[in-house]
Specification:
Layout lengths: L1 H15 L12 E8 L15 H19 L2 E8 L9 E6 L10 E2 L9 H11 L7 E7 L8 E5 L7 E4 L1 H8 L6 E7 L5 H4 L8 E5 L2 E6 L3 H14 L8 E5 L18 H10 L16 E2 H12 L9 E3 L6 E3 L1
Parallel strand pairs: 1-2, 1-5, 5-8, 8-11
Antiparallel strand pairs: 2-3, 3-4, 6-7, 9-10, 11-13, 12-14
Length: about 325
Amino acid sequence: MRKIFLLLLALVLVSSCSFAPLEETRGRKYHIISIAASYEKADGEINPLKATVPDQRKLREQFELIFSSLGYEYDVFEYNDEMSKDHIFSYRYYRSSDKEENIQPQPFNPGKKTEEASDLFKIIKDKVKADKDDVIIFYYAGHGTENGDLAFYYDNSSEPNYSKMTVRMLLDDFLSSYDCTKLVILDSCYSGAFVENSSLESIFTYTERDGEWITDSFPDIGSLIAGSFTSTFMSTAKDEKRTYILSGSSEKQSSYESTKGDVHGFLTIAVLEALGYNRKTESIGFPSWESLSCAELYRMTLDNMGSDILSQSPLFSSSRIDTMLFI
């Protein structure tokens, strides 16, 4: 009976209350932490991806336009395998006040055949300092393993190896060290593992057709938030404090990039359009909304996915309640 009462309470709250109360954002700063891999330097040993690094740049530029138009300070930590010709992976860090000519890429620990996620986390933590009222936006575009792990590094030896960033590494070892709101956007195969192994148990159902998992039950955003709210009281799953995860697919599904005309990851272009990007002209733009919450970004992303949503179903995990990204 207690479980039924809590479930009904959550449904009433979803239907009658805003899950994104207006909050004080004066003094807030935004921090973009962005990782992308094209695997072009793996000499064909790893399937290359065309959209990842260009999508990384376009998403950064779109966010920067929003930050600047709203008058917020921000900083960017950007890491990919196309920034430097001399090293496989490089990174750069800059603040909104820095001049472009002073922003120089740095090699990511050159000379080692494999890298640990902790090496990258240490570099980021040395650069990115966030206060409690800030917002971190973490973005990943690249390959994901069948466990959902992120293939964030590789070497170009005759037998290249991925270095993997697991769900728990990202959430527990890294993001949990920041006591602020975190939005995690993952455009990679099986990335739903980051949602379905976090505070929200899966409420989606799938049917296998010709070796592909097709979504046949997809709840509305109200049901999804209700599930997140009730899971706080009714399950023993770890609560990812103030962390909102948007995955490109379920833990059973692959993620794709378009092969006709413009080249984008299906998830990333849906997020870009929600933020104001013009896909027809391939240019950043001002959004039509006046404010945006994490759950609203998810809903708009779903709308922009169109029929692709059946074979690649983005998932969303909130921590108890929604929060405002932009006001």
